Amino acid sequence: MNYPKFPTECHSMLCKYLRSEVFDALNTVQTKHGFTLEQAINSGVQNPDSSIGVYAGDKESYFTFAALFDPIIEDYHGFKTTDKHTSDLDTAHLHASNPDPEGKYILSTRIRVGRNVDNMPLGPAISKEARKQVEENIVEGLKTLDGDLAGEYYPLSGMSKEVQERLIQDHFLFKEGDRFLEAAGLNRDWPDGRGIYHNADKTFLVWVNEEDQLRIISMQKGGDIREVFTRLVRAIEGIGTKVPFSYSEHLGYITSCPTNLGTAMRASVHIALPNLAKDMAKFQAITDKYHLQIRGIHGEHSESEGGVYDISNRRRLGITEVQAVQDMHDGVVALIAAEKALEEN
Ligand code: ADP
Ligand code: ARG
After folding, report:
1. Of 112, 115, 131, 234, which residue is the catalytic one?
2. What DSSP designation does 206 have?
3. How far apart are CA 112 and CA 329, in angstroms?
């Protein structure tokens, strides 16, 4: 492969960190699953408007292509190669009462973690057969869950377009045809091997074989962050006894995108902040202070509607799960206080 041509206005981390000496050193190496630099960077090459632009094909990618991945990981998470990641899923350590008990601002709360199966290639490098095997193993594990975590698995192949579209619109299901995932090789053989598991209330859901092999999700209306976190922890622990998760001492839970490493957790609220929305500088000063990310109402790469935003923790690696949720909680408390102050003006 020749050094890729990036437009001058490219601001992705790939453009920033793929210096020619890094390119030359990595261009001819590959991982034990045969994953190459060309595959790792294709999403960012095809999509110069990427914010990151790279994906891993397996756990080994993070070490084989460390000269590219390490600076990206440090830039995104503030996590250095000498830092250590630790996990803490103890709900007793979380200090989070409902930031909006009257239900005036927070519409819903959702916390998800990404997980992949140990000793298997990640989505960008997996074969159709191995993906199917992963799906079968996960579904077998999910079938053993009981109580409020008991549910049904719905494969994407065979699902009607109407049902699929309704699930997407209602924020329960991943969207189809994402161009970043497409170029990363994550949409190969679509919809084969993909699906969604959920309980009757749709407060506990698992996405199978989307960007990661599992996305374990707990969500509900309102702002009871503790209840959502507690349900998620039970689900992670329940599934973890059946499905061995890919984990590294250094990088935590392994995910296909470096932004999700570590806790692989995104804790978010859908929150109405119509006054703050008129002063984005003030809004962003608060989200920066609490390490939060602002997304639109239909998730990543979508827009806000009617002053409602998706606010979540930005950092995932080098902090514990409890801290990730705490970041979101503390930031949301500050955002609501700022919104209230603007109402009174
Ligand atoms: P991910 O959360 O897996 O990183 P997205 O940003 O694409 O991926 O979000 C996935 C879906 O979850 C989208 O439909 C999004 O609107 C929905 N979602 C995220 N946070 C919340 C929330 N707090 N309440 C309801 N739906 C949410
Ligand atoms: N690859 C996309 C980009 O660089 C998304 C990065 C983070 N989001 C994700 N879903 N992994 O813009």
Report:
1. 112
2. E
3. 15
Question: Which are the contacts of 202, defined by CB distance < 8 A and separation ≥ 6?
Answer: 170, 172, 219
Atom of ligand 2 nearest to the CA of 54: 1
Indicate if the pLDDT at residue 344 is higher than 90. no
In three-state secondary structure terms, 262 is strand
Query: How far is residue 62's CA from residue 58's CA, in Å, rounded to a whole number?
Result: 8
Output the ligand 1 site: residues, CB below 6 A. 108-110, 112, 171, 215, 219, 266, 268-270, 295, 298-300, 310
Q: pTM for this structure?
A: 0.98
Is the CB–ligand 2 distance for residue 320 below 6 Å? Answer: no
Residue range 260-282, pLDDT digits in tens: 999 999 999 999 999 999 999 99
**166 in catalytic set:** no
**For residue 166, what are its two tokens?**
């309704």
Which domains occur in the chain, in start order? 13-77 (1.10.135.10), 91-344 (3.30.590.10)
What is the number of other CB atoms lying within 10 angstroms of the CB of residue 197?
25
Q: Are 123 and 252 in contact (CB under 8 A)?
A: no
